[in-house]
Amino acid sequence: MKKFLLLPFILLIVIACKNEPEPVIPIVTPSNFAKGADVSWVSQMETAGIKFYNTAGTEQECMALLKSIGMNTIRLRVWVNPSPAWNNTADLVAKATRAKNLGMRIMIDFHYSDNWADPGKQTKPAAWASQNIAALKTSLADHTASVLTALKNNNILPEWVQVGNETNDGMLWPDGKASVNMNNFAQLVNAGYDAVKSVFPSAKVIVHISNGFDNSLFRWIFDGLQSNGAKYDVIGMSLYPSVSNWSTLNTQCLANMNDMVSRYNKEVMIVEVGMSWNNATECNSFLADLITKTKSVSGNKGLGVLYWEPEAYNNWQGYPLGAFDNTGKPTVALNAFAN
Questions:
Q1: What's the total number of domains in the chain?
Q2: Looking at residue 60, what is its pLDDT?
Q3: Mean pLDDT for the chain overall
Q4: CB within 8 A of 288, min separation 6: which ones?
Q5: Per-residue CA distances from 78 to 90, 143, 162, 249, 290 (Å)
Q6: pLDDT of 31
Q7: Do residues 172 and 114 touch, judged by C-beta distance below 8 A?
Q8: Residue 246's closest CA among 122, 123, 333?
Q9: Which residue range(s) make up the domain with 112?
């Protein structure tokens, strides 16, 4: 009889646990297309005295300014042990808090390096330099979970998380170099994927490759990852055309996006774009066309378009592909995000 007397109490406990609220991350729908920017430089720029202004010449906080011209998403990079400390966990949390308070959607971009990681370099963090693939997987997973837990503790819920940045030939070289050992690269992707899902089960994990127009590159990487059991949710792309070739590259990028959807049954997203700041009119045409094309991807699986560091101006860090003029105002290029 005792077991029957306990049954109502057990049921009450189960019901209570089921009714406990869980964090909810917004679901991307065709009517909620991601339009945004990576503004990871913003805290460093502000510390250097750089200011931002709307088209009327009124000073405005950078993220709020971008929101006012139609953006809804902020992307932020994170480095492992950078010196100086820009893009470390504390800097990331501070910027992500600002984005959250503005109601912006958030993407986190793990470089898994102490500095820039891109197609030409995927340098291990100094603290991981002597590690083999087994140790690297543990370090990568621990770093990923630690950073995301810091965000969670501040009630910040990223919608997307990149496991690596422009990993055209893998990451954490030489161990994770895809052209040398695709299986190692897939294992690292999976270590990151599992770490992301352990903190934010609903966040979408992105594998990010540059040159979104290059279908052969994407097939090589994602065929290799697929054959080695890699887990991810979204294929991320960069696209940096010139004034003379943007129309051709956009067309090729759309064909590539549709191929990725049909070949791997994954969603796709343009996570980085840019064009020379002094070609603002042409950049506007490029962006408007790319946004239209990404929205047209089959199955409504084109999730969004993000500009890389549009707020960079006045030769900040020598970067010429921002979308603000030298008075600190957004150029007409960014009008493409308004509608």
A1: 1
A2: 98
A3: 93
A4: 336
A5: 10, 10, 10, 29, 27
A6: 59
A7: no
A8: 333
A9: 35-337
**pLDDT at residue 339, as a whole number:** 72
Q: Which two tokens stand for residue 10?
A: 């057990």
- Is 201 a residue whose pLDDT tops 50? yes
Which string of DSSP letters, residue by residue, matches 259-319? HHHHHH--EEEEEEE---TT-HHHHHHHHHHHHHHHHTSGGG-EEEEEEESTT--TTGGG-
Residue 42 is part of a domain; what is its CATH number? Answer: 3.20.20.80
Range 271-286 burial, b when 16+ CB lie within 10 A, else e:
bbbbbbbebbebbbbb
Percent residues over pLDDT 90 in the chain: 90
Question: Quick one: which of 302, 304, 226, 231 has its CA closest to 264?
Answer: 226
Provide mean pLDDT across the span 39-65: 98
Q: Which two tokens stand for residue 54?
A: 């709307």
Can you point out the beta strands (E) in the chain? 34-38, 73-78, 105-110, 160-163, 204-209, 234-239, 267-273, 302-308
The answer to whether residue 220 is domain-embedded is yes
- Token pair listed for 215: 């279908």
The whole-number pLDDT of residue 215 equals 98
| Pairwise CA distance, residues 61 & 57, whole Å | 13
Res 22 pLDDT > 90: no
Tokens representing 217 are 């590159």
List beta partners, residue 35.
305
Dihedral of the alpha carbons of 125, 194, 190, 89, in degrees to the nearest 10: -20
Q: Is residue 97 part of a domain?
A: yes
What is residue 107's DSSP assignment?
E
Query: pLDDT digits over 230-283, tens only?
Result: 999 999 999 999 999 999 999 999 999 999 999 999 999 999 999 999 999 999
Eight-class DSSP state of 181: -
| 15 belongs to a structural domain | no
Residue 60 resides in a domain: yes
* Cα separation values, 186 from 117, 179, 181, 244, Å: 17, 12, 9, 36
Pairwise CA distance, residues 164 & 130, whole Å: 19
What is the C-alpha separation between 70 and 214, in angstroms, rounded? 29
